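Supplementary Methods, section 5.1.

A reviewer requested that the exact input to the structure prediction be made available. We therefore reproduce it here, unchanged from the version used in the analyses.
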Amino acid sequence: MLAKRQLGQQGLAVSALGLGCMGMSQSYGVPDAAESIATIHRALDLGVNFFDTAEIYGPFTNEALLGRALQGRRDEIIIATKFGFQIENGKSVGVNSKPAHIRKAVEGSLQRLNTDRIDLLYQHRVDPQVPIEDVVGELANLVHQGKVRFIGLSEAGANTIRRAHAVHPIAALQSEYSLWERNLETEIIPLLRELGIGLVPFSPLGRGFLTGTAKRAEDYPEGDYRKGDPRYQGENFDVNMRAAAVVIEMAEQKGATPSQIALAWLLHKGEDMVPIPGTKRRSYLEENLAAASLSLSAAEMAQLDTALPLNVAAGERYGERMMALVDR
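The structure derived from this sequence is encoded token-by-token as follows.
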């Protein structure tokens, strides 16, 4: 069974690895509800108690899927979901963190998840039109009402994090962080440790590059997120595949998979980090969870740190529209 870790200093205990559920409903390939639900059930059996979703995934369908899968087992699990987008006709048309919108979003999430409380509620993206103090003030009201247990932020910058935490304790920041994307190390991670906030790295496998399975953008079907990702385009793709080669080499030496090396590196970076690798297949889930028992020596950690330093990845993390929503 997986060990537990503390996210933040308010008593939120979760499994050392969580399960990112986004890909079960969108972005990567064709959804398979039956296999996705089987994967969630297998995760529970293997000790995973931390499941990550959001209203925008689908939109709405991912929360409903998770709600169905977790019926009868609610008290075993920690559900994390997110609000913060204005969703119209099945698409995001921008961000919205006005207090009235937050209340409406939370009621919708509770209904779809078939639960009376959200364990960890994140603001999905910072809304520049609404002061973070107003956002967190409304979230604190929801905590006092018992509808939300812990508060989180996603892709927030240092100033936003500090201001938010001054209003109500922030349990966790969810942001992209991996051996391949280390943008948080200079400023954000030291701040999180100063304030006692946990880190939930998403895309911990470098969106496929750290597994050795990435393909060029043009090889993905229409509608797949990766088709428009700058890091899969042209020369960027070649640079990024070369950068990941050291992970594949170490995996061969240790009789592990590249995914396990990448996740073990994150787990060794600190007890305050809980990666949420996403998958909709039981086989990949089991492979990922085996990383929790993989030991990396100080020399191996240093080798990986040196081979994949800050800014090693070629290309922006997102296209221009999505990058504009990252609060840095």
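The first helix runs from residue 33 to 45. These observations are discussed further in the main text.
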